Amino acid sequence: MPPGDWGLPIFGSIISCACGGTLSQYIKQLTITYGAIFHMKLGSRLFIVISDFHIIKAAFGNPDIQGRPNFYSFKLFKNFKNLGIAVSEGKVWQNGRRFAMRHLKEFGMGKSSLEETIQHEAKELIQDLALSTGIPKELSWNINVAVLNVLWKLVADRRYDVKDTEIQHFVKLTSGDFDDIQGPIALLDIFPFLIFLLPKILKDKWMNVHKMENSRDQVKEFIMSVIREHQVSLDPSNPRDYIDMYLLEINKHNGGLESTFTLEDLLESLKDLFNAGSETTSSTLRWFILYMAIHPDIQTKIHAELDHAVPKDKFPTLQDRNKLHYLEAVIHEVHRKASLAKFGLAHTATKDTRVHGYTIPKGAIVLANIEHCHNNHDYWEKPQEFYPEHFLDQQGRVVLKRDGFLPFSLGRRQCLGESLARTTLLIFTAAILHQFVITAPHGEDLSSGVGTEENPLFNFVKPFKVVLHKKERVM
Ligand code: HEM
After folding, report:
1. What is the 415 CA–ligand 1 centroid distance (Å)?
2. Distance 341 CA to ligand 1 centre (A)
3. Relative to the CA of 346, which ligand 1 atom is closest?
4. How far is the CA of 256 from the centre of ligand 1 (A)?
5. Does some domain include residue 350?
6. Please, what is the angle between helix 263-294 and helix 90-106, to 10°?
7. 329: domain CATH number?
8. Measured between alpha carbons, how far is 346 from 178 in angstroms, rounded to an integer?
9. If 0-12 CB within 10 Å is exposed, 13-18 middle and 19+ buried, where does residue 234 land?
């Protein structure tokens, strides 16, 4: 076993963790004490935390570390069944992931054919942002809808108006779910016996269990309605999107008991794509806008690059990518500094296995300490600063892959939407800075909103206000 902290019987190290401040701070302390791979016990759960890029790569490439923990908070959203992509395991996960990768690519993920969709959404967003230039304003939920629309084109061949209140309601629910799973419900994950001991009222009122169930059921109803519409209009000779392909796959297996392709699994896979695809990319876009307001000097350099690369009367396209090295380096630096998923998504060992010379016992929960890698002097020249040069070579060309950089995790469960997120972010950020200058509201220091360690798992940016100023350009 890797070295580490067993803590007290029953409690494990939960008390030291609580006394040490945040989970991040406690893990930081253990990393200093025990090094790049260590164990810690929280409640009845054994965690293996890996803080070294190469060891994470080896561990997450290991076929025996591809499970997901049976956390109450994860499973509640799945009605306690092994379904969907993000928190499923075994054949269900393998088939679902392979199928999603294949068909999202077929309908345009990572291809230039999606360009028109991304541009259309970026234009809609720009028009919307243009309505409130010159005044301090919080970024609205329209951003989440525009981002979702890009994914939803591939998945369900449809778009929503960015101001559509119904779809905004669902993206808000998703965002709330991300907050709730980081709250007190985590106690049920690490002390599973409390699931039976705690009175329902405490679970509902304190841990928001009822709220999460309610959100799960509302999102389920919404996604089911999208599936039903597809069932009615399905033309087997002309599949339009991922949902059509999935329905045809179900028909192919003809309800065979062995098949993992079922309506219930389709529903859960869609919920996963909806959740994983909207909040993450939108939040990264918000971080980008915040960093631009904090670093006018860096923003000026992007403006100069854009002015040179994209004519005044043109909209940025993917073809401009090879002229936008600085912008792409800045987006990478935003991923690094934000470290959106601080510890990725937890994996589990599905049998006893070996990593870096240590035994990882079956059932152990393996965490990639992404936040640590992103802030480690071994990998970064100026880890504490916002320094896009981390991703530029001597010739000023962007360096896309670097040791120590893993915002989308690594290995067999690496984010399946990475290429989609990267393309969306490039076009959206280029379009925004092609049209606007972003500043902090007069007299406000936005840098205090950066580097917070309040959330244990996900670094979603707190609401902030910025002022957008229209550039003297013609679209
Ligand atoms: C900036 C945007 C994004 C970030 C930072 C991000 C990050 C991550 C991370 C860290 C994981 C965990 C990987 C692991 O378990 O080791 C993950 C998984 C996943 N992501 Fe993303 N993601 C982003 C956007 C997207 C988008 C746009 C989609 C939609 C297609 C997506 C779909 C998924 C899915 C389905 C999984 C589960 C994969 C599996 O369990 O096999 N993500 N993502």
Report:
1. 3
2. 9
3. 15
4. 30
5. yes
6. 60
7. 1.10.630.10
8. 15
9. middle
Ligand 1 atom showing the smallest separation from residue 109 Cα:
30
Model pTM score = 0.95
Residue 304 Cα, ligand 1 centroid: separation in angstroms?
32
Cα of 408 from ligand 1 centre, angstroms: 6
Residue of 91, 242, 415 to test ligand 1 pocket, by largest number of atoms within 8 Å of CB:
415
Give pLDDT, residue 451: 60
pLDDT along the chain (475 residues), means of 10: 90 82 87 96 95 98 97 92 96 96 90 89 94 93 95 95 94 91 91 93 94 95 97 96 96 80 96 91 96 97 96 90 97 97 97 97 98 96 97 96 97 96 96 96 86 76 93 61
Show Cβ contacts of residue 475 under 8 Å, excluding neighbours closer than 6 positions.
123, 126, 313, 315, 435
Residues with CB under 6 A from ligand 1: 60, 85-86, 97, 151, 272-273, 276-277, 280-281, 284, 340-341, 344-345, 407-409, 413-417, 420-421
> What confidence score (pLDDT) does residue 357 get?
97
Is 328 a domain residue? yes
pLDDT digits (tens, 9 = 90+) for 152-196: 999 999 999 999 999 999 999 998 998 898 889 999 999 999 999
Q: Is residue 17 a known part of a binding site? A: no
Q: At a CB cut-off of 8 Å and minimum separation 6, what does 448 contact?
A: none
Nearest CA to ligand 1 atom 37: 86
In-domain check, residue 242: yes
The residue range of the domain holding 59 is: 44-470
- ipTM metric: 0.99
**What is the pLDDT at residue 222?**
96
Nearest-CA residue for atom 41 of ligand 1: 413
Q: Which of these, 395, 394, 375, 366, lies nearest to 335 by C-alpha position?
A: 375
Residue 201 inside a domain? The answer is yes
How many folded domains does the chain comprise?
A: 1
